[in-house]
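Reply to thread "Modeling small-molecule complexes from scratch"

Following up on the discussion above, here's a worked example others can learn from. I took a protein sequence and the SMILES for adenosine-5'-triphosphate and predicted the complex. Inputs first:
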Amino acid sequence: MSDKLIRMMRSRGSEPAETRPVMLAVGGDSGSGKTTLARGLAAAIGAHRCTTIGVDDYHRYDRAQLRVLPLTALSPDANYLDIMEQHLQMLATGQPILKPVYDHRTGTFARTEYLRPRPFVIVEGLFPLFSKLSRACFDITVFLDPPEQIRHRWKIRRDAACRGYTESEVRRELARREPDSAAYIRPQRRFADIVVRFAPARDGSDPPDTPSTAELLLRPTVQHPPLTHLLTDDVGTALSLNIIRDDDGTPVDCLRVHADATADDARLLEKALWDGVGHDREIPRGLGRLADGAHSEPLAITQELLLFHLMQEVYQR
Ligand SMILES: Nc1ncnc2c1ncn2[C@@H]1O[C@H](COP(=O)(O)OP(=O)(O)OP(=O)(O)O)[C@@H](O)[C@H]1O
Ligand SMILES: O=C(CO)[C@H](O)[C@H](O)COP(=O)(O)O
């Protein structure tokens, strides 16, 4: 199927809306926070209404094989991207798939899984925005882009704690991956509707691996909530909306959430977003949760914005 055909099939009127799930892509390099973001979203939507898949499952080689091959997991040649694209098209048109499963705890493949798409499908991983065809399957696309120093720290800690690596093994692997990261992963940033950059506080007051600010690039490829009445363009305030230059020089809105944003600031924004998708919806609780149980306000606000888009998609159909 071509990307044009899949867009047509998913466009209003050609498929019954109830058979087309709302599809969200969360892309970014390893350790950039995709699973953390997606987990909170899925919990807010409700497990019975949301299917989450990690496209690491489409790896071609297991960990032992990759150790001896001149390839990294970030190379398209190390992944069945054609099967990933086929499966994304099937999910996007409401059909079930028989999905491979890669187990990060052991670095091996497990039993395939029968998966029927629920009304919301979140696809997270290294390659969801890689090809025209895969991009055509999504309603909303996000790319997580934390500063490399922070991502490395997050990955080292997580891989050592949960994936059976030593810290020096992860450091070596990060260095080995750098060329593939630059060639195949980071270029996907330009195809996202929203680019999220978590970073340390502007005054450097917080520990370096617990970022407390977020910069959200809101590209005009989707309709964002009207926030201008709520936020100033003064970057000195806790929450601000101002125009910056995108990578290609075009002006783009940037929503900034600073460390000193209070819970009240966040609730104000939350209410504006939620009013935008209808007064009858309850504001979800428990957003912003990190793997260790700590809370991150910038993460919560990012998840709120994405929930706004997912709900808006439903209301527009
Ligand atoms: N917003 C955040 N604030 C603080 N720490 C975070 C945040 N997001 C992720 N982390 C930290 O980074 C680690 C890696 O995050 P996560 O597993 O979500 O990344 P990922 O992109 O899904 O990685 P992979 O692609 O390798 O599976 C987490 O265990 C957590 O410690
Ligand atoms: O880049 C990654 C995304 O999660 C992983 O390193 C890749 O999926 C291989 O997994 P593992 O290191 O657990 O064998």
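What I'd highlight from this example: DSSP finds nine helices and ten strands in the chain. Strands lie at 22-28, 50-54, 97-103, 108-115, 120-125, 140-144, 194-199, 213-218, 239-245, 251-257. Questions welcome below.
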